[in-house]
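In full, the data.
>
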Amino acid sequence: MSYTIVKSKKGYLVFTITRSEKRNAINYEVMKGLAEAIKRAEDSEIKALIITGTGENAFCSGGDLSVFHSLHTKEDAYPMLSKMADILYKLLTLPIPTIALLNGIAIGGGCELAAACDFRLARKGIKAGFVQGKQAITTDWGGGSILAEKMTGPSAMKLLMEAELQTAEQLKEAGFIHAIYETSPLQAGEEFIEKILGTDLKVLQSYKRIWVRKWEETKLQERIEEEVRNCSILWESDAHFEYVKKFISKKTVNKD
């Protein structure tokens, strides 16, 4: 299995990507697991959902290009991009608090996954970045549109357009990271949500509804769909194809 889903006795669910050998990159099985976790998080006994990765090296390195490299055209890429974007929108609008525990580096789609969560905690010393621009594409799962809802315009645009890795401290200053921890990820996550877990579930759901309603009124889902379609066009560009080709070639050389 590429993931685990564990229910805590304290009333929260933990989804963990268990592909440390692939820097916890997202494949179709991880997508399936995320969808399952989101569904299970709707249980009346669950007050929060935590998402993290195994090991200390990576939270999530985005989509697994060794899996998705066969998607050459926009017609090939769109179904995968749209599917993951739909999962992230469901995560975004889940009626309970969600927390991304960045136990290691977060790259590209890994940052999009984190952006879809309500809160983001990062281990001291890690880096993260929306590096899709270096791959000749944009955020491909709706992360740009989500980021525009979570941060000020200039801060979000800078992260997206520079396409560089940032330190946890830089990301906290920009407003992307909410807290930096030095303990174990789950300990940090539990300490962060301890007081939230003490609040009645219906109260949590009512407050979350304020933001969900706002995103519905501003047609965020439609904007995400437009973002995905635009990315699918860039996906079939020569520049992106060359990036993927070099990435796969480098992986093959390193493996040998």
